[in-house]
Write a structure and sequence with these properties.
- The chain is built from ten helices and nine strands.
- With 254 residues, the protein is an alpha/beta fold.
- The chain has two domains: 162 residues, Rossmann fold; 82 residues, SIR2/SIRT2 'Small Domain' (2-Layer Sandwich).
- The chain is elongated, with a radius of gyration of 19 Å.
- The model has no long low-confidence stretch (mean pLDDT 95).
- The chain binds adenosine-5-diphosphoribose (APR).
- Adenosine-5-diphosphoribose binds next to strand 8.
């Protein structure tokens, strides 16, 4: 087993309060493309054109047609992969308390994590711009674009567009989690979007160890994060979780 896997498993097994920050990379092995890098959505679309609140309000049909309907098909069929299941297992073992995710796919909750902060909202619900009523995305027919509420108002997804602020409750929960953990696992994020990418900095400033799992280094690597497990999250989390279980089993036998 790779040294970094053993080392990271040792840190996790000894930790009192682990928090994870995840990004699109953790869901790549569930068939959901990332935003940046190889095969990223932002290689095809300009995020300011299709994911900014101003472009949505100016032309909701275009945003629904270009981005949201494609996302709906992906999200309706996506399932948690070994990386999500590994984080859920770490919660079952009493080690991981909170997952702060930038993802809107709901896969952490589906995997079994019970304290998930959806930093950028989620795609599971739509909200009417006029009357505010909410519908589950899977329930809403997309034959008509943009989908409309019974009152005639246009539906928007409850995810956070560029140009919008992070919901205050989610931001507050994330800052508390980042400042009270003693270890933060940063999985599958390019760490370029603020304020999500500042959570590992808060953790580090509060004395936590920050560990990244990513095939590529990020702006956090070597400064905020002290270890980079360079690889895909599914394989890394499967190996790390197995090693954590082995360490805990050995401890119980002592
Ligand atoms: N396992 C782990 N990491 C992976 C994998 C994988 N199998 N595949 C790709 N990655 C890494 C990439 O190297 C990259 O660092 O995941 C990261 C994906 O980065 P982004 O696509 O930028 O996703 P994210 O960091 O979540 O973006 C943040 O930007 O566009 C906004 O709102 C959107 O929440 C998103 C935010």
């Amino acid at each position: 087993m790779e040294d970094s896997i053993k080392k990271v498993a040792g840190y996790i097994a000894a930790a009192k309060h682990v928090v994870a920050l995840t990004g699109a990379g953790i869901s790549v092995e569930s068939g959901i493309p990332p935003f940046r890098g190889k095969g990223g959505l932002w290689e095809k679309f300009d995020p300011m054109e299709v994911a900014h609140i101003d472009s949505f309000m100016k032309n909701p049909e275009k945003v629904w047609r270009l981005l949201i309907s494609a996302m709906k098909d992906l999200l309706v069929s996506a399932k948690p992969n070994a990386a999500h299941l590994g984080l859920a297992r770490l919660e079952e073992l009493g080690l991981l308390k909170t997952v702060i995710t930038q993802n809107i796919d709901g896969l952490h909750q589906m995997a079994g994590n019970t304290d998930v902060v959806e930093f950028h909202g989620n795609f599971a619900w739509l909200r009417c711009l006029d009357c505010g009523s909410r519908e589950q995305t899977v329930e809403v027919e997309l034959s008509q674009m943009p989908p409309k509420c019974e009152c005639g108002g246009i539906f928007r997804p409850e995810c956070v567009f560029f140009g919008e602020t992070i919901p205050p409750k989610e931001l507050d929960r994330s800052q508390i989690a980042a400042s009270t953990c003693d270890l933060m696992l940063v999985v599958g994020t390019s760490a370029v979007v603020q304020p999500a990418a500042f959570m590992p900095v808060i953790a580090k400033q509060s004395g936590a160890t920050v560990i990244e799992i990513n095939p590529e280094p990020t702006p956090l690597t070597g400064t905020t994060s002290t270890i980079l497990v360079q690889g895909k999250a599914g394989k890394a989390m499967r190996e790390i979780t197995a090693e954590v279980e082995r360490i805990l089993a050995d401890k119980r036998q002592l």
